[in-house]
Amino acid sequence: MNFANNCDECKRLSASYEAATMDWFRLQGQLRIATLSNDPGASDRMVAELSGIAQRREQLRQSAEAHLAAAHPRRAAAGSPLS
Ligand SMILES: [Zn+2]
Question: What is the extent of the structural domain holding 19?
Fold first, then answer.
C-alpha cells in the first residue's frame, strides 16, 4: 500500500491495517499451539477469529484503495501493477 506520510487518514488506515496484520500473526501462532495440543475447541474458535480478521483486513485494504484513489490519485496510480 502506497500511503502518504503527511495524511491523517493514511496514518489511520495504515495503523489499523498493521494492527489487523499483527492480530493475524498472533492468532496464527495460537492456532498452531492449539492444533499441537490437540484442542479442537480452541482451534475452531481461532479459525473463526482468523476469518473475522481476514474480513477486517480486506475491508481496510478496500478503504485504503478507495482513499488513495480519491485523495492521492498519483500515488494510487504509482502503486498499481499496470503503471
Ligand atoms: Zn491519505
Answer: 8-78
Residue 59 and residue 21: Cα distance in Å, rounded? 13
Total-model pTM: 0.79
Q: Which residues surround ligand 1, an ion (CB under 5 A)?
A: 4, 7, 9-10, 71
Query: Is 55 part of any domain?
Result: yes
Q: Which tens digit of pLDDT belongs to each residue from 15-51?
A: 999 999 999 999 999 999 999 999 999 999 999 999 9
In a domain, 83, yes or no: no
Residue 52 CA to ligand 1 center (angstroms) comes to 25
> What's the Cα-to-Cα distance from 27 to each of 48, 53, 58, 73, rounded to whole Å?
10, 9, 17, 35
Domain count, the chain: 1
